[in-house]
């Protein structure tokens, strides 16, 4: 009788090609913590949704997804935590599963992208976010939410990272990006042409929900005004559905303590449903 | 000295052609209750508004509206409640009044539409909502917020229901609608052409405020991301002002417990002002 | 990896003598709804507790409890709902299980007490509450949170109900109680002497958490100032531990929407831990 | 059908000996405003109470009280506002009415006490509060919530003011009080002996709810930890019921924006019910 | 180590051409107070921003701004308060400083605009707001947030005030504006052409943040649905950057008590950063 | 004009014997983070207090305290953080200062107690808390809020730690305490006799505010029902004033995100004022 999985994801690990899991970690969050509670809010609230998407005209009930719960992590030791995430995700990939991960803060994408890269050396990353996330370090710490894409670049290299919606960062981050990543500032309008180019490559999609305008999505640690609308993100998701080889994806930075109305959690749920349909097709 | 009516609605029943009333019922709400408190929030907050609408260039002070308060209803017995609403609304209609009702959950539109239909057998319904509301039943209950339009179809029949903004439902509801109602999905862009067709027919307008994007309007029980903006709804209201024979209308699903900032209540107030000006002209 | 049961209650049904379950029903709540969300808040927050009670010097890990989740109930049809609860609880009792139930509103104790009574015709009820709950009906409805103890009296009869902490009701309810129940007003000081008398009889304990002062426990639908402190309730629980034959118990009326700090949920969790230790010993 | 008066106070002005009214003014509040909303919260929430008090064993239905609503006041001009309150209250007193006023900030007691004093030159004031309220001025303003009792002393003189529960003020205020008022610090234990002395004199009772501990009553502008419990205040109210000539009373400083759970509003409601029963007997 | 200034504004008064200050006054607010807390929320939350603006491609670190804190004002005496603000601002202007002020309610712009006008008799005012603010008085008070632009017109005269985004007011205010100000209703689309005309004149910019839609910006006292988006305001700010002689500016009406998520405060911070870059260039 | 220090603590470092500082760290918090924001809430809200304490009959204005702000710390690297705190506190101690620290989570007391111990090898610690804090480690991490007193015991040794108010922990922690610390469970009644014994020894006082009942003090990460009242803590503080050689103290675990009413922050402010008066005398 318990509600314990995301809606429509009550299949066993074995029978599922696609695994959903949460990482309740916000240990390097510098401003307002709380993303550790994301999955705890998303699971019960997902029952306010339907499993059927009129956008993609497909139903979650028609694919087999396993919700494997949340990783159990100590707080206060970032390096050890990153390692545990890497081991877990590597296990999934080795078992031939595709996966969708829900953060937590954005740093948790570092080990999951790494695990995908280990299997798919040709991995390309689509990064939708308000922030550049390209700092070399944050107050001396290299493992930081503000550095996650920089860390991924260290193994991915140039030409593999495609950034959309970016509207905040240090001046030097914007400068650095010119030579090393593809970056669209302020909006995600060029997503269709990039998706066209990448359509048959192995892809990892990482969506930091703070790409949305805080009016639409206040429930996040570092709200950055001037973002895209949810209709624009929905249109972007429909574009991403043209990709033929998505191997992993994530939705990060929902922070339920800053979502008193549940509207941001509803957005995370709906984005997750669409993403599961895209990755799991 | 008391604030006890909606702004500008302090006329007596006798001298008014238009009656406003509230139905504080949320008894079948499956997800998050609270719409019972809508009118209790709307009345005092309406004094943050002006009575003059620069959109319609008309003033509430220039028409006679009676705010007759809220129905006094027991909770826990849906059938009896529906009957009491029907009797009350039938009384208004029999007295020759037009009315605007404020919910409560959407199920309360069922008896008010029925009362209007009894007097105007040619009644057509304009239904603006995020959800199809076309389920045959919800967990075995036929009287449910998720079934309200289906229940109305039983007496209205095909070709009488015009749905706008719909973006959530079971696959079979969307299928059923193809044969029995007019449905515009995701937006309300075709409202002008439909209004043109219906302009001289007896019309009931039912607005479920969750048609709005939850970023704009979080204060509702079942937020469904990807909705229309308030500017779009305002434009729609201006279109509805072209109708010549609106006999009743309602605004439902404001849930003040999910409106910590009062912004959703402000939207309900403004929508109600415009609707009173439209129905009462 | 999922958190899905109350802390320390992850045993199977078969191996457990004691079953925990939730009833997410608040359908007759006349003032402020929300108790349907109680178990949804209690389960994850129980991990802020320890399984060891220094009050009883016993540990939840040392008894076998099964958390069977929440009943899946339609809203809007109270009679049918009461029946489903009765059937479920009767099933537990027939399987020889003791149980602890978590509401929901207080009306849900009616069918669970009835199920216990069917098996133990000599059942006595200890009722800790701010309200008399002895109305004949509420606005014509006999199945109401305000009438639950009156309904139980219909099958239990005189001399079986022991009320503590009562401080609100109609004058006639207080009058009626004089002849039909034992009632201590305002406090629970006489609990030890009553427990002494009842120690070997079959007992059902029903705790409406609004017996606590709203300063201590604001998270409930009908806060009634002037209640007991949590230290007093803890002392009362220690007294209840002297009972030798508790067959069922419940904790009702936590309403998470009115608990923005989580302090009331923490109280419900701790009360539930102690009650499980008492019933399960 | 409207809920527009405090529970049980729906008698006409003419037939009532006792008038209830609100003053939604918080214009000199230096820390956190919001007491202007007190009556707007109290009226609807009073329906969570019963009219019967088991403490006094009397029922509000048995006395005739008129709720005359809230004064309509401009904000930003304190002197003019004080004058309007004085005129209104003087009108009541001249009509031979007793009254209970609900603030607003404490400064509004100044004109209401003055109006009572004009009629009863022998007036004595019982002042229950966390704060001395004896400043000569606050940042140069003599009409301030922090000076209200000092202002009253100017016309009442020595030996007329009895202060209870005081636990915050400037050192010089505590010094000044030694010569001019009766002051019990930290608690209200000496209330019975003072009431005994004053029992046949004309009395005004002013209760600043921040006398309560903020744990019990957080919903106020200047929470001062270490206050009395609500059970202690209830006991105090029962003592005040021994007074034979209470001509006016007030309850001030409920601030609903700091009462997210409604527990403080419930306390204000219950205190008001008891006070109406005391003044109106 | 303290965070005490707005981000990047830690220069001394002497070395800065531009001064930032706050006015924590909401004394005439008729609906919901709280703007007094704006700067108290803005300063710490500004550290969630970067100092670099990718919109203007300039960095706050590259200009010298002094944050001189908040004025220390008594509450309850509006006239005296207005005078103190005038004296303070006149001091800045006399020292040759440009300034950006943060309210507080909109009335505080009256003395700051006056101080600017005294130095620049040819001053023109760009007023971005949801409300006309052109009332002659509010309940008899001439110094009111609803009258601030009317008061400014008294010394500025016709042809000097340019209003954008206006969507609420009395009918007579809209009528009056036709002859005395430039007013664009509902949007700010004509800003570029007006800025073109005014580009070399001395300009004061006053931004009432309630011009934004309450979905985007709920954290204000009088939310008025149907406003502009933050992207539109950002575009407007970029247009204002073409002005060559901005002598002062303000951002008013953020009310943190109505901003539980911090999203409105984030908007105020970002608007303030852009405005500092515009005025300080 | 800025409010930037705790009330009455605006003296320079050099002229002060006593230094106040904050540590905004909650990096190992396992349940609900947010204590990093404590000082950010305490400083402005301290202006709701007076500097004069009627309990100790002393005034903060009469002693010289320097508020040196908050440490600037990276998040995610606990070991480095502990080291930076140790270095900072050691600097204070070496300069001959006494200090009061405000957390942050309880782990931050580990380095501050260590710094005090380095100077005063005979240091004794008075520990007031709901939790034992005596775990060997938490999920493998030795630097954890749940282990802080255990870590201190490693250098302090047996007979130096005096624990009061403890009501939660593992069974083995309670067992371990029997041989290594003094522990009073559930209350702080034995504080006077212990203080008598310790009155001339060098003392560090660490107050975890969750020792208070969550009804009184909900604003903390791990609320543990059944705690002491604030009046009891105030009485305890008065007892602590008899100590003659307090060298350092702290107040930890206020979590403003769980304090929507500000009542918990008010308690932290008042406790801090009393503690400054005690340490600074």
Write the layout of secondary structure elements.
6 copies of one chain form a homohexamer.
Chain A: E1 18-23, H1 38-45, E2 52-53, E3 58-59, E4 65-70, H2 78-94, E5 98-103, H3 109-119, E6 124-128, H4 148-156, E7 161-166, H5 171-180, E8 182-185, H6 191-198, E9 203-208, H7 230-240, E10 246-252, H8 263-279
Parallel strand pairs in A: 1-4, 1-5, 5-10, 6-7, 6-9, 7-8, 9-10
Antiparallel strand pairs in A: 2-3
Helix pairs in contact in A: 1-8, 2-3, 3-4, 7-8
Question: What can you tell me about this protein's structure?
Answer:
Six copies of one chain form a homohexamer. Chain A is of the alpha/beta class and 281 residues long. Chain A has a single domain (18-279), classed as Arginase, Chain A. Chain A is 32% helix and 18% strand. Chain A has helices spanning 38-45, 78-94, 109-119, 148-156, 171-180, 191-198, 230-240, 263-279, and strands at residues 18-23, 52-53, 58-59, 65-70, 98-103, 124-128, 161-166, 182-185, 203-208, 246-252. Chain A is globular, with a radius of gyration of 17 Å. Chain A starts with 17 loop residues before the first strand and ends with a helix. The model of chain A has no long low-confidence stretch (mean pLDDT 96). The interface between A and B is medium-sized, with 23 and 24 residues.
């Amino acid at each position: 009788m318990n509600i314990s999985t995301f809606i429509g994801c009550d299949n066993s690990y074995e029978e599922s090609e696609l695994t959903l899991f949460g990482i309740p970690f916000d240990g390097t969050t510098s401003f307002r913590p709380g993303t550790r509670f994301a999955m705890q809010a998303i699971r019960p609230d997902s029952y306010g949704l339907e499993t059927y998407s009129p956008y993609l005209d497909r139903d979650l009930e028609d694919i087999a997804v396993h919700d494997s719960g949340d990783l159990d992590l100590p707080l206060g030791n970032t390096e050890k935590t990153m390692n545990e995430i890497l081991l877990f995700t590597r296990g999934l990939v080795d078992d031939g599963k595709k996966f969708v991960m829900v953060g937590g803060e954005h740093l948790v994408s570092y080990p999951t992208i790494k695990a995908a890269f280990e299997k798919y050396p040709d991995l390309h990353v689509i990064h939708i976010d308000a922030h550049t996330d390209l700092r070399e370090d944050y107050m001396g710490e290299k493992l930081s939410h503000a550095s996650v894409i920089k860390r991924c670049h260290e193994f991915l290299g140039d030409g593999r990272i495609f950034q959309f919606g970016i509207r905040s960062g240090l001046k030097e981050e914007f400068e650095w990006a010119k030579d090393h990543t593809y970056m669209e500032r302020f909006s995600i309008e060029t997503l269709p042409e990039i998706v066209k180019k990448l359509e048959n490559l192995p892809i990892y999609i990482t969506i930091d929900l703070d790409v949305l305008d805080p009016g639409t999505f206040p429930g996040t640690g570092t709200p950055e005004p001037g973002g895209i609308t949810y209709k624009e993100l929905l249109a972007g998701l429909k574009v991403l559905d043209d990709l033929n080889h998505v191997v992993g994806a994530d939705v990060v930075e929902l922070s339920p303590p800053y979502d008193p109305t549940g509207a941001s959690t509803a957005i995370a749920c709906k984005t997750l449903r669409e993403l599961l349909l895209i990755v799991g097709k």
